[in-house]
Amino acid sequence: MATLALPRRGPLRSTLVRHVVLAIVGALLLLVLTTSVSAYRDFQMANIGYYVVAVAGLTVLTGLNGQISLGHGALMMVGAYTCALLLERDNPLPLAVVLVLCVVVTAAVGALVGAAAARLRGPYLAGATLAFAVGLPGLTSHYADTLGGDNGLNVLSGPPPASLGLDFPPERWQAWITLSAALITLVLLANLASSRVGRTFRAVRDDEVSAELAGIHVARTQVLAFVISAACAGLAGGLLAFVSGQASPGAFSVALSLSILAGAVLGGLGSLTGAVYGAIALVMLPAWSSNASDRFSLGTNVQHNLPLLVYGALLIVVMLAAPQGLQGGVRRLLGLLHGRAPATPARNDPVTEVTVSEPDR
Amino acid sequence: MARFLSVTLGGLSGGMIYAAVALSLVLIWRATRVLNFAQGAMAMFTAYLAYKVLEHGGSYWVALLVALASGLVLGAFVERVLVRPVENGPPLNAVVVTLGVFIVVEGLAGMFFGGTPHRYPTHFSNVNYRVGDVSALAPFDIWVIVSVLVVAVLLGLLFRYTDVGLRMRAAAFEGEVARMLGVRVGRMLTLGWALAAVIGALAAVLVSPNVPLSPTSMDEVFVFGFTGAVIGGLDSPVGAILGGVGLGVLLNYVAAYAGSDLQTLSALAVLVLVLMIKPSGLFSTTATRRV
């Protein structure tokens, strides 16, 4: 991003100010963009907004703290159902309050999962979170009276505020909400990443024993990372429910969890800018695949499954093309970010080539 | 009491299927220290091929044979082409690769076969035997239990008494030394994955009459198999079978007394509990391992 080239003088020396300025510039650009495109594009951007939040949350967990989670789709489900249940009441709370509550509830669930996860490593953690992702949708049919069974719940998100005019497209309103949430999340996470807490995350990821020797409470750090990541997933889930107008178990399949992982891997784990690219890819790929199958008349089965195929192929290719691994890739990326490695050979570097991420700090 | 006994016996056949999945995971884990998250999806795909054979008029046995054979090929292919390059890297890489295989296979199944669940036919009766008030174990369940037991025994004989089995054990136990003694280690690992996929295929064919076949139908079964394998300790084939059967019975209690929708979350609870109390598994012989 352009800020990298700015000399760090005056107020821009402060990380917080820099990120906020960047977010305001981004918000202005998005404001222009959302008001100048069709309702369908606005709807796509609304979807991108919550995917950014989810993928960025997973990026912090996996890229920054080295824990893998296949359960983020299920955590989004917690957020979505919280949102649906809160908006269902006769006098619903304001949307902002509802979304905050989605974050709080999901963070609490994330603390539970994280407490178990902090004791697990690698394949065991992946397996346990996968079990969470496979099992949680079952709750909706067990408590079908409250959670609506397989059909799920309708989310009464209401029209855009009257002050915007009567013919204001609801898609644009949705895009504004999710994109603002995405920008706020990105600013908070970017600050976190460059803060003391972010450094302890990285220390734990790189070497637990050394981190412990340096006085870092490893388990507590891992739970904290999980809680933050779950909070993001909860916000993303609440926004998804708000945008799609419903919360149903079918929307929170294992495939969702794995596609979020694919988005994070594609974006280059550890890079929040990459999370944005990953989220854009997650929304655009299904659209492209439906265009492609229309053009070549491939049928709905192909259309629905082509994105899955691409996500899976992506996970495999990235891993095979970056033999020194997730950790090595992340470390090299961070090395680039901090100017420890020459920036020019990055173009030939398999990690950065596949992950199309740019230094953002 | 009669109901309790019925439920207990009823859990056995499901448990044997989880045991088969657990066994296949252990086989792969012992050979390559990789947890194959695609195991359930790969098995699902072979069951679909068998289903296609049945649709075109093939018999139950021909279809089963097709599933096992395609499992053999699929398992060997995945190990040799996709997993081999990451086998000795950080564990997370192998996990992500098998996850990639997992979604690719599910996507392919959705493309070729559609998302509608199919009930896989069987020519064994599904009517339970009755002794007094206890009603459990239909002929189909007996077939499930016997076939998995036979496969497990055959596998044990293979490892204990044959030359190939000895080579496979050597390759898994200490690859470098085995290589120096002339064992084609790579080939043995591929064979291990192939055999595991065959067992997975059997499990998928056995479970599909009860869990209608769809691209995601093996997800839960995989989770149960994984949990069974962890209960037994990922290193122990006998532990995997006991763990799978034990979990099957336990989950049948959950289904009978609490609701079948809670089975997977109960499996998760068991999984977390076992990993916290005895991470090496209840039946494991190895001393320590980081979980």
Radius of gyration of chain B: 19 Å
User: Structural class of chain B, please?
Assistant: mainly alpha
Number of domains of chain A: 1
- In whole angstroms, the N-to-C terminal distance of chain B is 39 Å
- Number of discrete domains of chain B: 1
Largest sheet geometry of chain A: 2 strands, antiparallel
Beta strand % of chain B: under 5%
Intertermini distance of chain A: 8 Å
Q: What portion of residues of chain A is helical?
A: over 70%
CATH topology name of chain B, in short, is ABC transporter involved in vitamin B12 uptake, BtuC
Plain-language structure description:
The complex is a heterodimer of chains A (361) and B (291). Chain A has one domain. Chain A has helices spanning 15-36, 39-65, 72-88, 95-117, 122-135, 138-142, 144-147, 170-193, 196-206, 208-213, 218-244, 254-266, 272-295, 300-321, 325-337, 350-355, and strands at 153-154, 246-247. With 361 residues, chain A is mainly alpha-helical. Chain B has 291 residues and is an all-alpha fold. Chain B has a single domain, classed as ABC transporter involved in vitamin B12 uptake, BtuC. Chain B is 72% helix and 2% strand. Chain B has 11 helices and 2 strands. Chain B has helices spanning 2-32, 39-55, 60-83, 91-113, 139-161, 163-173, 175-180, 185-207, 218-232, 237-257, 263-277, and strands at 129-131, 134-136. In chain B, helix 1 (2-32) runs antiparallel to helix 8, helix 1 (2-32) runs antiparallel to helix 10 and helix 9 (218-232) packs across helix 10. Chain B starts with a helix and ends in a 14-residue tail after the last helix. Classes of the chains: A mainly alpha (361), B mainly alpha (291). Chains A and B meet through helix 5, helix 6, helix 12, helix 14 and helix 15 of A and helix 4, helix 9 and helix 11 of B.
Features of the shown structure:
heterodimer; A: 361 residues; mainly alpha; 16 helices; 2 strands; 1% strand; disordered C terminus; B: 291 residues; ABC transporter involved in vitamin B12 uptake, BtuC; two-stranded antiparallel ribbon; 11 helices; globular
